[in-house]
C-alpha cells in the first residue's frame, strides 16, 4: 500500500510537470508568433494592401494594421498547438480554449475598428468632397463590431450558439431601445445631415439660441464640434440640428456674393421738392447727370422751373435714391448681375430709414466690411449735397450749442444800440 501511494504521487507529479511544461511551451509559441508578426507582417501588409504606395516612403496605416494583426495571430497559434497536447487535463484545455476564443474576438474587433478608422482618414484625404464627413457611419460600424464581438464572447463563455444569444436579446429589446435612445436619435440625425448635405465640414453656422457662430470642424455620431470665431470650442448634439433653428452661411460662400442690407436714417424735415438752387449743388457730383436726365425725360435742367418739380412729385430724396442706385452699379466691388435696390422704408421716431440692398463681389469678411463701410461713409458725406440731413438723436453737444446760441442772443438783445 505504501509503494502504491508513492507510485500515484510520482505519476501525479509527472502529470503536473508535463502540464506546466506544455503551458510554458504554449506561452513561448505565442510570444515567438507575436515577435515574428512584428518583424515580417509589416512587409506582407504593405505588399498585399498598399502595393501602389512608394516603397521608400513610410506608412502609418500598414504599421497600425500590423500591430493589430500581431495581437490575435499568437492566439490562433496557441489554439492550434493545443490540439497536439492531449495529455493536458480537460478542464485546463477548456479554460485555455475559452480564453483564446475571448481574446480572438477582442483583438478581431480592435482590428476592424482600426480598419474603419483608416477608411475614415483615407476618405477625408482622398475624397473629392473634402468637406463631407463619414465619421458618423464609421462610429456606427464600430458599435456594430463591438456588439457582434460581445455576442460571440457571451456564446463562448456560456458554450451556446450565438443564435440563441441573439434570440434571447429580443426580450430585452425594449430595454435596449431605452438605453440607446440617444444613440438611435443621433444616428438618424447624422444620416439626414450627411445624406442631405445640409451641414458639412468647414461650414459657417450660427445658432442664436445657443449664442454660437463659427466653423464646423467635426461631425461625429453624437456631437458636432464648432470652433467659434473667438477660438472657443462648442459641441452640440447632432439631433439638435433637426429640432432647432440655425443658419448655414455656406450657400452664400458658394454663390460668390454676400448681401448688404443696411439702412441709414434721414431727417423727415429735410425731404422736400427739388428746386433750381438744389440742382446747382447736385450737378457738381460726377454721375448725377444721367439719372437726373432720365427723371426729367430728357428736358434741359436749366429750362425746368420749380413748379414742374412740384407738379411731377420729384423730391430731393427721389434724385438721391436714383443717384445711389447708379453709383452702386458703377462700383467694382458690387455684383451687377444681382439685385441693387435703394428704397425708403416705413418712417419711425428715428427718422426715415433708407435701405441699401446689394451684393458684394467678395465673400471674405474683411473685404465685405470694407465695401460696406465705404458705401455708408460716402452716403453720410454726400447727403448734404442733396439738401438731406442724416438723422441722429440729440446729444450733449447739441444741447450745449443751443444753450450757447440762446445766451448769445440774449446778450445781443441787451447790448444798447449806438
From TrEMBL:
Cellular component, GO, one term: plasma membrane
Keyword Cell inner membrane: no
InterPro entries from the UniProt entry: LSM_dom_sf, MscS_beta-dom_sf, MscS_channel_2nd, YbdG
Keywords assigned: Membrane, Transmembrane, Transmembrane helix
GO molecular function, one term: mechanosensitive monoatomic ion channel activity
Gene Ontology terms describing biological process: cellular response to osmotic stress
Membrane-spanning parts: 20-45, 65-82, 94-116, 137-157, 163-180
Origin: domain of life: Bacteria
Localisation per UniProt entry: Membrane
Pfam families hit by this protein: MS_channel_2nd (PF00924)
Principal place of residence: membrane
Gene3D superfamilies noted in UniProt: 2.30.30.60
Domain Mechanosensitive ion channel MscS: 184-250
Record protein name field: Mechanosensitive ion channel MscS domain-containing protein
Organism: Pantoea latae
Organism ancestry: Bacteria, Pseudomonadati, Pseudomonadota, Gammaproteobacteria, Enterobacterales
Amino acid at each position: 500500500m505504501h509503494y502504491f501511494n508513492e507510485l500515484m504521487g510520482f505519476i501525479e507529479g509527472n502529470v503536473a510537470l508535463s502540464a506546466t511544461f506544455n503551458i510554458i511551451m504554449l506561452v513561448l509559441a505565442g510570444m515567438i508568433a507575436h515577435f515574428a508578426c512584428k518583424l515580417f507582417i509589416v512587409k506582407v501588409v504593405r505588399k498585399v494592401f498598399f502595393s501602389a504606395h512608394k516603397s521608400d516612403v513610410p506608412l502609418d496605416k500598414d504599421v497600425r494594421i500590423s500591430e493589430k494583426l500581431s495581437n490575435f495571430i499568437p492566439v490562433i497559434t496557441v489554439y492550434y498547438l493545443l490540439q497536439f497536447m492531449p495529455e493536458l487535463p480537460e478542464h485546463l484545455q477548456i479554460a485555455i480554449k475559452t480564453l483564446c476564443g475571448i481574446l480572438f474576438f477582442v483583438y478581431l474587433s480592435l482590428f476592424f475598428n482600426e480598419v474603419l478608422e483608416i477608411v475614415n482618414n483615407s476618405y477625408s484625404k482622398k475624397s473629392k468632397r473634402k468637406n463631407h464627413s463619414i465619421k458618423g457611419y464609421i462610429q456606427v460600424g464600430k458599435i456594430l463590431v463591438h456588439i457582434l464581438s460581445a455576442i460571440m464572447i457571451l456564446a463562448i463563455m456560456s458554450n451556446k450558439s450565438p443564435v440563441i444569444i441573439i434570440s434571447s436579446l429580443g426580450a430585452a429589446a425594449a430595454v435596449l431601445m431605452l438605453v440607446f435612445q440617444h444613440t438611435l436619435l443621433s444616428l438618424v440625425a447624422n444620416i439626414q445631415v450627411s445624406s442631405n448635405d445640409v451641414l458639412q465640414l468647414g461650414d459657417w453656422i450660427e445658432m442664436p439660441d445657443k449664442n454660437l457662430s463659427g466653423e464646423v470642424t467635426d461631425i461625429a455620431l453624437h456631437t458636432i464640434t464648432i470652433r467659434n470665431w473667438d477660438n472657443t470650442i462648442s459641441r452640440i448634439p447632432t439631433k439638435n440640428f433637426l429640432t432647432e433653428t440655425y443658419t448655414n452661411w455656406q450657400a452664400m460662400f458658394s454663390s460668390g456674393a454676400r448681401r448688404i442690407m443696411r439702412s441709414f436714417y434721414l431727417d423727415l424735415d429735410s425731404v422736400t421738392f427739388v428746386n433750381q438752387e438744389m440742382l446747382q449743388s447736385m450737378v457738381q457730383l460726377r454721375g448725377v447727370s444721367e439719372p437726373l436726365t432720365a427723371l426729367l425725360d430728357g428736358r434741359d435742367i436749366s429750362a425746368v422751373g420749380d413748379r414742374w418739380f412740384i407738379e411731377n412729385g420729384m423730391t430731393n430724396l427721389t434724385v438721391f435714391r436714383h443717384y445711389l442706385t447708379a453709383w452702386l452699379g458703377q462700383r467694382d466691388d458690387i455684383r451687377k448681375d444681382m439685385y441693387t435696390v435703394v428704397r425708403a422704408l416705413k418712417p419711425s421716431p428715428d427718422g426715415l430709414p433708407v435701405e441699401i440692398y446689394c451684393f458684394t463681389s467678395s465673400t471674405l469678411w474683411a473685404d465685405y466690411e470694407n465695401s460696406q463701410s465705404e458705401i455708408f461713409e460716402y452716403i453720410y458725406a454726400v447727403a448734404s449735397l442733396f439738401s438731406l440731413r442724416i438723422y441722429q438723436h440729440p446729444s450733449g453737444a447739441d444741447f450745449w450749442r443751443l444753450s450757447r446760441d440762446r445766451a448769445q442772443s440774449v446778450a445781443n438783445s441787451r447790448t444798447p444800440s449806438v
